[in-house]
Write a structure and sequence with these properties.
Layout: E1 2-7, H1 15-24, E2 29-33, H2 49-60, E3 66-71, H3 79-88, E4 93-96, H4 106-118, E5 122-124, E6 154-158, H5 165-181, E7 188-192, H6 199-211, E8 220-221, E9 226-227, H7 233-249, H8 254-270
Parallel strand pairs: 1-2, 1-9, 2-3, 3-4, 4-5, 5-6, 6-7, 7-8
Helix pairs in contact: 3-4
Bound molecules: zinc ion.
């Protein structure tokens, strides 16, 4: 298993501790997301973006299956500089939460084009956003339709966009059609199933994903929203087990299950 959605907070524990906690549940790695940009939480102490890059690199410290993702505000004045520096420092991808701008924001779109040109993926928050601000409207799936105009962008929509899962699936269909018509240039959507979804919705949403008739088996990724500094193996295992039970009830074979729990995340990160 590779957990596609793990956050870091202020403490930096040695990467070995995270790897150990992952290995307890048979997981070999994770996408590890940096500290947020300084305008995200009012209470987060300010860090320069260089400090945040250093911090996330230290958290992953070159481990083969810990993938450092830099949390970027694509509208910031020096977004290009941040992207360039991340790419020079072997950051594997970007995390974006649209908390004060629509994805179609002109500056954000320029930044997404730059990232796509670098061949790096973007993991977007989508769905209800629990940040204490009026911000969920920026995170409805249909607002991400603009990414059709970012050639070659590999991006993931986190939390199955809960509660707008049906809207997300409709968008996925549109992106997939575009990809089948223009395989070399179209952008590609992945769906990160990190809850999000309260347990009562989970089986229904996963079963829709696998039965809607779109080709989703290569684009779904398992994640937990865990915390790298204090990764809770028990909780991740519980979620993993419950997802496994749901997938079994849908008659998914081992290959598809394997893709869901690890292979698709590797493809999202590396692009092949
Ligand atoms: Zn998260």
């Amino acid at each position: 298993m590779i957990d596609c959605h793990v956050h870091t907070h202020e403490n930096v524990n040695h990467k070995n501790e995270l790897l150990e906690r992952l290995s307890v549940i048979g997981a070999k790695g994770a996408i590890v997301i940096s500290l947020p940009p300084d305008n995200f939480y009012n209470f987060t102490p300010d860090y320069t973006f260089q400090e945040r890059i250093e911090h996330i690199k230290k958290c992953c410290d070159g481990a083969q299956y810990l993938f450092p993702f830099f949390w970027l505000d694509p509208t910031s004045a020096d977004a290009e500089e941040q992207v360039e520096m991340c790419c020079n420092q072997d950051i594997k991808g970007f995390k974006v939460i649209c908390d004060h701008f629509y994805p179609s924001n002109k500056r954000a779109m320029q930044t997404f084009r730059l990232i796509a040109g670098k061949g790096k993926p973007v993991l977007f928050h989508s769905g209800i956003l629990w940040d204490g601000k009026v911000s969920s409207k920026y995170n409805r799936p249909v607002e991400f339709e603009c990414l059709l105009e970012v050639p070659g962008l590999r991006f993931a929509m986190a939390h199955i966009s809960w509660p707008w899962c049906d809207e997300l699936l409709a968008m996925y269909g549109k992106f997939q059609r575009q990809k089948s018509m223009y395989p070399d240039t179209a952008s590609e959507m992945f769906i990160d199933t990190t809850p999000g979804t309260p347990p009562v919705y989970r089986a229904a949403e996963l079963s829709k994903l696998y039965s809607i008739g779109y080709d989703l088996e290569n684009n779904l990724m398992f994640g937990t929203d865990g915390n790298a500094d204090d990764y809770c193996s028990e909780w991740s295992e519980k979620l993993m087990q419950s997802d496994k039970d749901i997938l079994r009830s849908l008659d998914l074979d081992d290959e598809k299950t394997d893709k869901y729990f690890s292979k698709n995340t590797e493809r999202f990160v590396h692009g092949c």
